[in-house]
Structure formats: C-alpha cells, structure tokens
Amino acid sequence: MNIILLSTHLNTGGITSYLLTLAKGLVQRGHQVHVITSGGNMEEVFLSLGVKVVNLNIRTKSELSPKLYKALWPLRKYIKENNIDVVHTHTRITQVMGSLVQRVTECSVVSTCHGFFKTRLSRHIFPCWGQKTIAISSAVKKHLLEDFNVKKSQIELIESGIDLQKFLPVEEKKKGQLRKKLGLDGGSVLGIVARLSDVKGQDILVEAMSTVIKKFPTVKLLLVGEGKLEPLLREMVENLDLEDHVLFFPVVDQAPEMLTVLDVFVNPSRQEGLGISVMEAQAVGLSVVASNVGGIPSLIEDGKTGVLVDSENSKILAEAIIDLLQHRDKQKKIGLAAREHALKNYSAEVMVDKILQVYQEVIC
C-alpha cells in the first residue's frame, strides 16, 4: 500500500510521536510511507526509517489560508504520480486539505482526531473528518459524537500505542550516570516532556514547586520542551526564586533517556486527547501524577498505576507530588504497576494493525 501521512509539521510532540510509531510499523509491514509536511526537527528520524519526506508549505493556523489551496495542486500531482492509496490526516489544517484531496482525486482519506477542537461554526459547515475518523481515546470519541455530531459508524476508537522496546526502565546505577551527565547530583527529580504551552499546564507545575521545595529543598524539576509559554515560565521561576530548582531543556529526540533520570513524571495538562507522554513515562516504570482530564483517566487507575489530581490546582498537585516523594515505597510500587499496565495495554503493534484495517476498509 502507498500511504501519505499528512501533518502540518514534524517537530517534537505528541502527534509527531504518534506519526513516528505509525510510520515505523507500516514500513516494517512492507508498506511505502510518504510524509507530507512543512518540516521539523524530527525529519531526519523519519528519513532513517525509510520514509519519504516531502516538504510542502502548509504551516498555517487558518483553514482559509491561500497556502492550503496553493499546495493542493502539487499534492494532487504527487498523489497521482506515486499511486497513493490512502491519505491519513492528523491536524485540522491537514483535515481540510484531505477533504479537498477527496474532491480532486480518487484517493481515500482517513483522519485521526488527537484531541479536542473548539466548536467553531466552520467546523460544522466544513467538517472534513474523512471517510473514517480515528479517535485516540474514549473521551475524544465522545467529543466527536456530542460536539460535532459525527456518525458513530464513521468513528473508529483506536487508542495510541508506543514503542515499548524504546521506553525501558534502567537500573539505579545507570540512572545515576545519566543524572551526573545532566548535572543532577543528589535530590529527587521531577519532570515533564512536552511543548511549553498553556494547554500543557507547566505554569501550574512551576507554581506547585514553590510548595514542594519547602518540604524537599534539594528537589529539581526538568521542563523538557520548547514553546510560547517559555518566557512566562522563566519569569515565574525568577519571581518565585526557583532558579536553582527548575531547569529548562530544549526539545530532544532522546525522550527515553530524559524520562529515565526522573523519580516522578508530572503532567498538569488543562486538556489532553490521550497523553502519549504519560504512556511513555509509565512504560519506563515511573510513578505519574497527572490531571484528571480528557483521555488521561483511561491510562491511570488512581492510586495504582498513577495519581490523578484536579486540574488548575497547584496546591493539590503539590500535595500529590510531596506524598510520592515522602513515601518511596509507594512511589516504586506505582511505577512497577504502571510498567505492567503499559506492557499489557500500549502495544504499537496492535495500534498499527487496527489502523491498517481502517485503510483497507476505505480503499475497498
């Protein structure tokens, strides 16, 4: 099968992780994968898998942008020249492009809904869900049904999977070596790997840190990622006198290594379609504290495979973190249970096979 994965960009993040896992699985099964994108810092990783990456100027926030309509014709030509069977879209912008592709080619189109959309009038007038829409969690499926009236028969619930061979626990000795490499000698380490944005809630976590350090003066917080919220976060760190406790790391493609130096992974998101970073943290055996929003509750059994907290509440978040740091046995027990849960439920193989079934259904 010749498959196009259409994504606005390939910068580090949840959607790019999903695309990478999917592309790898498709290539391993003998399919030809083409990624049409405006580029990004993960492009070389896709190329190393044998994926064809084609850059097209589609980076825009407006579904009415002339860029999209200008890019439609070279995309149409590429689809015909490469005998593409299915186009798989992953963002609102590419969903619009996919809908246009359907009108000017005979190509089948599938979309994945990775999160929650604002119920703008344009999304109802011009829905662009493709022949089949994949929801990555039950919460997202409910959102599509209730907020956009997408037909139940059109939606396929396929929860995201991750590469479980990539996200592995490490022994304490190795963890110590990795910490030393990052200049993290002594003290507990908290962290989150995500773009720095309002929806990811790093500001709530920084605020919580001012409480956590009163109990644990040597604790460190790693904010791994880049984004528009960084200036505000740095200002908060300075105002709260947290310069010695909060460390910023740019986007890295060694996410597994960054996770393994942590004691506790914290996801204070205000909204989350599923939470791939939570899944990855669980896979390496970390105890996770996360907001009880979106698809996250489907990943965490509170108190057993992680800890759920109310969103937008730095006080409750701080209390949950302190509790895990005070009770190392509990922290370890939750981490082990999280790892077992990940092994049983987060198989990328299952995800890829189910998505292939959807492709075959729309092509036939």
TrEMBL record:
In this chain the Glycosyltransferase subfamily 4-like N-terminal domain maps to 13-165
GO MF terms here are: hexosyltransferase activity
Domain Glycosyl transferase family residue range list: 177-340
- Coiled-coil residues are none
| InterPro entries tied to this protein | Glyco_trans_1 (IPR001296), Glyco_trans_4-like_N (IPR028098), Glycosyltransferase_grp1 (IPR050194)
Q: What is this protein called?
A: Glycosyltransferase
